[in-house]
UniProtKB/TrEMBL annotation:
Keywords noted in UniProt: Dioxygenase, Oxidoreductase
CDD domains for the chain: cupin_HP0902-like
Pfam families: Cupin_2 (PF07883)
One of the record's GO molecular function terms: dioxygenase activity
Name under which the protein is recorded: Quercetin dioxygenase-like cupin family protein
Xref: Gene3D superfamilies: Jelly Rolls
Keyword Oxidoreductase: yes
Domain Cupin type-2 span(s) in chain numbering: 43-103
Domain of life, per lineage: Bacteria
InterPro entries found in the cross-reference section: Cupin_2, RmlC-like_jellyroll, RmlC_Cupin_sf
UniProt cross-references to SUPFAM superfamilies, sorted A to Z: RmlC-like cupins (SSF51182)
Amino acid sequence: MDNTDFEKSITHDLVNSVEYLSRSVVTRSILRQNTGTVSISSFDMGETQQTKYSPYDHLIQIIDGEAFISIDEKSNTVETGQAIIIPAHVKHWIRANKRFKMLSTIIKSGYEDISI
């Protein structure tokens, strides 16, 4: 399974690879495999990603603008150049008080539910 919107082995301008669209969230897949995903999204001001739970840790990197990210009811403002890790199995949501672009990485190890 090799589904991607990006050509391999060449450089990409990530910030400009996804445009802002009025009153919308736009997402493009960079890498999509059975073992995880990397995607880039733009959020117009006022847009919200609804409350979610994920079975995997989720790395969010802000590459333009500023995001408001609530993790387990704790508020976080994440700015350009900053990143935050959303832990697996925790309620979270994302809001654009200002418009922003983010790089999202999820790695699925297959061992998330196994205690060591």
